[in-house]
Design goal:
By secondary structure, the protein is mainly alpha-helical. It has three domains: about 160 residues, no CATH class; about 35 residues, no CATH class; about 45 residues, no CATH class. About 60% of the residues lie in helices and about 5% in strands. It has eight helices and four strands. Strands 1-4 form a two-stranded antiparallel sheet. Strand 2 and strand 3 form a beta hairpin. The radius of gyration is 21 Å and the shape is globular. The two termini are about 30 Å apart. The chain binds protoporphyrin IX containing FE (HEM). Protoporphyrin IX containing FE (HEM) binds next to helix 5.
Length: about 240
């Protein structure tokens, strides 16, 4: 029998490193990157604990004056300020080392394009927003989805065996997974986990830019709206047991 361990941290750090590899070209668990690791943990915990409040504050920012929300709001603001400082320093560092003839990674490519096209937006702020968006949107979602998939696979050993068999047959123990790998069963398992455990059940808030009519419903201009993604994924009209994997 193996030793017990907490999987969450490994999943969160490894998924964030996929994103970090694309964006800042660093790994959060490398020596000297403690600030990145702290930020990743802060983002993950923030999503978990205060995800609902983020949405509430987007739609009704005045809620921040309620005593019970004030502290959370303060924490969110502090987290944002720390994140901004961290990403600003990472951008500065890459800008100093930038070789425009050989851009390496997302920040370099952005800086080169910005130089070429000189758009009107503020370079550092826009880049920082992209970096933070990608990390925040990609890390918690991916690691939580993986955790749920593992929970379902533990509960369903036969499915787990089939997943194993397909991976062994198509990719192999030493092989590298590719996006175009022919693994229909594995894909179906992932899709089913997405469906049952609809992460971000209301999606992200959107606002109409003009008066809009959708399926007969009138949505006025500048109206913030959400999608009921969970209602689509777990529709009892089309599925006999929508909450069951
Ligand atoms: C299992 C993993 C993921 C899940 C479950 C997930 C889920 C979602 C959901 C529900 C939305 C809202 C869609 C909407 O309301 O229109 C969204 C938006 C978004 N996701 Fe993901 N996501 C995942 C992975 C990622 C990754 C890896 C990235 C980055 C590479 C990413 C970047 C984004 C961005 C940038 C948006 C906002 C798009 C926009 O404003 O149009 N997501 N995601």
């Amino acid at each position: 029998m193996g030793k017990r361990f907490v999987l969450e941290e490994y999943l969160a750090h490894s998924t964030s490193n996929v994103m970090n590899g694309i964006t800042i070209q660093q790994r959060c668990n490398d020596k000297g990157n403690e600030a990145i690791m702290t930020y990743v943990d802060h983002v993950i915990q923030g999503f978990r604990k205060d995800g609902f409040l983020y949405i509430l504050l987007t739609v009704a920012p005045w809620c921040r004056f309620f005593p019970s929300v004030r502290n959370v709001y303060k924490n969110i603001q502090e987290g944002i300020a720390k994140g901004n400082a961290l990403f600003d320093s990472l951008i500065d560092q890459r800008e100093k080392e930038l070789d425009t003839n050989r851009p390496n990674g997302f920040i370099d490519s952005f800086l080169v394009e910005h130089k070429k096209n000189s758009p009107s937006f503020e370079k550092k702020e826009q880049l920082r927003i992209f970096l933070k968006d990608l990390l925040a949107a990609g890390t918690e979602t991916s690691s939580s989805t993986l955790r749920w998939i593992l929970v379902y696979l533990i509960k369903e050993p036969k499915v787990q065996q089939k997943v194993h068999d397909e991976i062994d047959r198509v990719i192999g123990r030493e092989g590298l997974a590719r996006l175009d790998a022919d693994v229909p069963y594995v894909r179906a398992v992932i899709q089913e986990a997405y469906r049952v455990q609809t992460l971000g059940p209301l999606g992200v808030p959107r606002q109409t830019t003009t008066d809009t009519t959708l399926f007969g419903y009138h949505i006025p201009k500048k109206h913030t709206n959400f999608k009921q993604l969970m209602a689509c994924a777990q529709r009892s009209k089309t599925l006999a047991q929508p909450r069951k994997v």
